Fold:
Amino acid sequence: MIPALKIRNFRLFKELDIEDLKRVNLFAGKNNTGKTALLEALRIMGEADNISVLRYVLEQRGEFKFEPWNMLDSVYSRPELERLKQDNQNPLVLSINHYELTRKYIGERNVNYTLANTNNPNSEPLALGNFHLQQPQPIIPKDRFVFVPFNAKEYFPLNYYWDKIALTALEDDLVEILKETILPNLVRLDVQQNDRVVVRLKEESKPIPLKNLGDGAQRMFLMALALINAKDSVLLIDEIETGLHYSVLEQLWEMIFKYAVQLNIQVFATTHSQDTIRAFTYLLEKEEYEQEGCFFRLQANRKDGQIEAIALGKERLEAALETQSEIR
Structure:
């Protein structure tokens, strides 16, 4: 598990330190406080020896450029980049725990980027030359962690993750999760070509497309599939409540806590929803889970405007919800 997170010069985060991370971590905050950027940082850090995840993240945001002098600049803290325009002699280091991406100004339209994994003393820094970065992007970035986007249009390798568990005990776990949460009448399911998911229900004589059952069923399936595939690894979920009715949120968190413990998964999720936070708090009230989860609020520090993460324990979280204080 990741016990703590230290981020330097990444997007909104000039310096962000988060201690005492738990098995299940929920992050909330106003717009532009870095919730999605936090998940991006974790995702990039997860594959510290490979450029494909960083490239994919930038391409999804429409930020990747092929000019060799600024192709990765958008991932750095913007104020620090502006500062370097006045001080080009010093490199700018972006770090996410053991992941380091160093930007060195050589001259006009000449910038070098170097990738290093400080956790591996035997690894050599990887010089990211123009040729290397213009190689074709893999269809599936080499993610070490499993990432669930909030936007259904963003790519999620559904067939890839299905093939990894099909006809195994993990497929049985997937079916059980869906029966316990949103499809109690589910008999079995299958993922066909073009990411078409079909399900067989007890009252139906033939399989039907999962999309016929609504956005909530599709979203829950996606998260359940991701959860099962994150065994012994890390699961990242952006805006976890997307497409779900508030009435199933407690079941959702029950599913996540149960299988995170059972399958040795660490979870990082973001939310905009007060109902999602409340349902999360209900799970922390259960004796078996009270030490397994933590809630963090991302906010701008009043003194310097830098983004910070404030941890709220169960008691403070319950008090805030009871007084209807703003905690998102």
Summary: Residues 137 and 320 are 45 Å apart (CA to CA). The radius of gyration is 21 Å. The chain has a mean pLDDT of 86. The chain has two domains: 48-133, 146-182+214-322.
